[in-house]
Amino acid sequence: MFVRHPDQPDWGTGQVQSNIGGKITVNFPDHGKVVFDGNRIELIPVLDPEN
User: Fold this and answer.
1) What is the CA radius of gyration of the chain?
2) pTM of the model
3) What letters, b where the CB count within 10 A reaches 16 and e where it falls short, cover 18-47?
């Protein structure tokens, strides 16, 4: 699954690595791996990561 961060559009499209207990790990190509609390931030799903 691919996502974008609503407050950090410059991070680009990241790929979800895992979602364990609401802790979501996303790998952004130019920002690296970031862990989010799924209860605090709603990541935006990306249906076509090429666009």
Assistant:
1) 10
2) 0.88
3) eeeeeebebebeeeeeeebeeeeeebeebe
Q: pLDDT of 22-49, one tens digit each? A: 999 999 998 999 999 999 999 999 998 7
Q: How many CB atoms lie within 10 A of CB 50?
A: 6
Q: Angle at CA 42, nearest 5°, toward 40 and 46?
A: 155
User: Residues 17, 33: contact at Cβ < 8 Å?
Assistant: yes
Task: Say if residue 51's pLDDT is above 80.
Answer: no
Sheet holding 23-28, edge to edge: 32-37, 23-28, 14-20, 2-4, 44-46
Q: Which of 19, 49, 11 has the alpha carbon at shortest distance from 36?
A: 19
